[in-house]
Design goal:
This protein has about 600 residues and is of the alpha+beta class. It has three domains: about 200 residues, FAD/NAD(P)-binding domain; about 100 residues; about 150 residues, Nuclear Transport Factor 2, Chain: A (Roll), CATH 3.10.450. It has 18 helices and 27 strands. The strands form five sheets. Strands 4, 5, 12, 13, 14, 15, 16, 17, 19 and 20 form a ten-stranded mixed β-sheet that branches. Strands 21, 22, 23, 24, 25, 26 and 27 form a seven-stranded mixed β-sheet that branches. It has a five-stranded parallel β-sheet with strand order 7-2-1-11-18. A hairpin with a 2-residue loop joins β26 and β27. α1 packs parallel to α4, α2 crosses α8 and α11 packs antiparallel against α12. It is globular, with a radius of gyration of 26 Å. About 5% of the residues have low confidence.
Length: about 600
């Protein structure tokens, strides 16, 4: 939109990073006109690629249409001394967990998430640009005019000469703290100054197959480096993203004279000594980024007409994976803050303050000596980390307007505070360093059988798309294959074939195709396929299904009604409206079964 600022003052978001873009989306969804100050994201690597529980639960609300930039984070793994700590994140696995999350008013998820920030931030910026409710100004804030008595923001003077008079200001500038500094807010620094070096590694453009996925590519992999064994005291990360990997390291400022490039080489060597190698699979580096900063927390997160959004209010150890989650939490509160700046602001501040204790927990992982890294200590400290995250979830439920989530949150909070639950959630394995990765994940690299299973699933996708005859499914699917469609189960190869025939009929003369196909294995041996439907000129959002294979044939399929909205329309949103369609498929499959020989 053009920079026409006539009319009454509007809410203003300062900062066009992920935090500001999430707040803009929240306001746009509520049909609230607003101004977003900041330029488009660049292509440099950025932080915030591994999400915690909070960020993963809120991801669909703010980024649900951008699935191509999202990958599963099935566990968090920490290499520390002679031990490896693993925390699994499949909170939807147990019935009790699924039931409790329903009481909290949300759905349990099968994994946390990794996000490709380069692609996601660009897509969110494009979405904001297209919103009729968002007025974007590509400029920087040069001066903030404040009323020091009322602690109000009166005006924002921009680098292009524009003066903006806001009704409310969301400071989404993170460590720059543009509005916070102008208001003179009291801030407390936490811990020693940090130096961070990080980059991305990409597969060879001439041999994409070199980046075959290994079992460690579905987890965030952290590594504590020790001066005695690795030449430097530091904490490193290896985060697998959909199309490349992110690697970085954090050290206390002035504790090493190594260059950024040499630091990253130390990280590569440290991972390799523990059996995790990545440069042969991802040989192409992006530019190395360097960041010098301190963690901090403001004493106040809100005022009469302003709030410090997400990482602008507080920044804690990156190991917590909390940055994106706090951004989404701020966005979720945005409309409430406009309606009740002080009441909602107090609620928001109390919620974010729950995050601060986690910094001390990660201090132990970063600064404890090599001999202190015992299995007992690792288990104890991981319990503190898990309980802090669950406590924040309980706190979020306690501020829900609905009585059932509030009660469930209060109960969960009491159980966590009294350490009645969430003990021993993570497991510790001990092994010689050269064997640690293999002990945790099994042999590295995709095995021949895994690659063959992926090839089988790809062939089935070609059958669905009509590029191979439907009869080829006889060789790909087990005769007794079971397909799970949310709450419905279909058994037998004829049922699957009848379902595909029905989809093709619904698509009409334009035909139905599957494009942008990707497959990848899960640690439990199953294979996930993702892609998009294309019919005529329309292309759907990304869809996915999971397959279990035995002896080279598919024996079980997990899919979802939402995968077929592109073809079947809105009937997929209702189980009752799907019944006639499923009944028709069932009758067709029975006729097919009677006319076909047993396979």
């Amino acid at each position: 939109m053009s920079a026409d600022l006539s009319g009454s003052p509007r809410p203003v978001i300062v900062g066009s990073g992920l935090t500001g873009l999430a707040i803009s989306h929240s306001l746009s969804m509520a049909s609230i006109p607003h101004v977003l100050i900041g330029g488009p994201p660049d292509a440099r690597p950025r932080l915030g690629e591994s999400l915690n529980l909070e960020g993963s639960l809120l991801l669909d609300e703010f980024c649900g249409e951008f699935g191509r930039f999202i990958g599963p984070k099935e566990a968090g793994v920490l290499y520390m001394g002679d031990h490896v700590l693993r925390c699994d994140f499949d909170i939807a696995r147990k019935l009790a967990s699924r039931a409790y999350f329903r009481l909290l008013g949300t759905a349990a998820i099968p994994a946390f998430f990794h996000i490709d920030r380069l692609g996601l931030d660009a897509a969110m910026y494009e979405r904001a640009s297209a919103s009729p409710w968002c007025q974007m100004i590509d400029a920087a804030v040069e001066r903030v005019a404040v009323d020091p008595i009322a602690a109000r923001v009166e005006a924002l003077d921009l680098s292009d000469g524009t003066r903006v008079t806001p009704s409310y200001v969301f400071d989404a500038t993170n460590h720059r703290r543009t509005v916070a500094k102008a208001l003179g807010l009291e801030v407390e620094t936490v811990g020693a100054p940090q130096r961070v070096a990080y980059t991305h590694y990409h597969p060879s453009p001439h041999d994409r197959s070199s980046a075959s996925r290994s079992p460690c590519d579905w987890t965030t992999n952290l590594l504590r480096l020790y001066r005695e064994t690795d030449g430097v005291d530091a904490m490193a990360w290896y985060i697998p993203l959909p199309d490349y990997i992110s690697v970085g390291v954090s050290v206390d400022e002035d504790t090493t004279e190594l260059s950024d490039e040499d630091l990253l080489e130390s990280v590569r060597a440290a991972y390799a000594s523990r059996g995790l190698t990545y440069r042969s699979r991802y040989p192409v580096p992006a530019p190395v980024m360097s960041l010098h900063h301190r963690y901090f927390a403001h004493h106040r997160a809100y005022g009469a007409n302003w709030m410090l959004a997400g990482g602008t209010y507080a920044s804690v150890w990156w190991l917590a994976g909390a940055g994106v989650g706090t951004s989404f939490a701020a966005a979720r509160m945005a409309t409430k803050l406009l309606a009740d700046p002080l009441g909602a602001g107090r609620t928001y501040q109390d919620y974010l303050a729950d995050l601060l204790p986690i910094h001390a927990t990660f201090d132990w992982f970063v600064y404890s000596r090599l001999e202190e890294a015992t299995p007992e200590a690792l288990s104890r400290q991981s319990d503190r980390f898990v309980r802090t995250n669950v406590s924040r979830l309980a706190h979020a439920a306690r501020i829900d307007p609905r009585p059932v989530p509030r009660a469930a949150g209060a109960l969960m909070g009491w159980l966590v505070r009294n350490e009645i639950i969430m003990g021993g959630y993570c497991r510790v394995l001990s092994a010689a360093r050269s064997k640690q990765t293999e002990t945790m994940f099994g042999p590295m690299g995709a095995s021949d059988s895994v690659q063959e299973d992926e090839a089988t699933v790809t062939c089935l996708a070609e059958v669905i798309a009509g590029r191979r005859p439907l009869t080829d499914a006889d060789h790909l699917l087990d005769r007794r294959v079971v397909a799970h469609l949310d709450g419905f189960n279909a058994r037998g190869r004829p049922a699957w074939q009848s379902w595909v025939e029905m989809l093709r009929r619904r698509a009409g003369p334009e035909g139905l195709d599957l494009v942008d196909l990707r497959t990848y294995p899960l640690p439990d041996g199953r294979v996930v396929m993702t892609g998009s439907w294309r019919s005529g000129g329309r292309v759907s959002e990304e869809v996915s299904a999971t397959y279990r294979l035995v002896g080279g044939r598919i024996v079980e399929i997990w899919t979802s009604r939402s995968n077929y909205e592109h073809t079947l329309g809105q009937r997929t949103r209702s189980s009752l409206r799907m019944l006639p369609t499923l009944a028709g498929v069932g009758m067709a499959s029975r006729l097919r079964r009677r006319s076909s020989p047993a396979g």
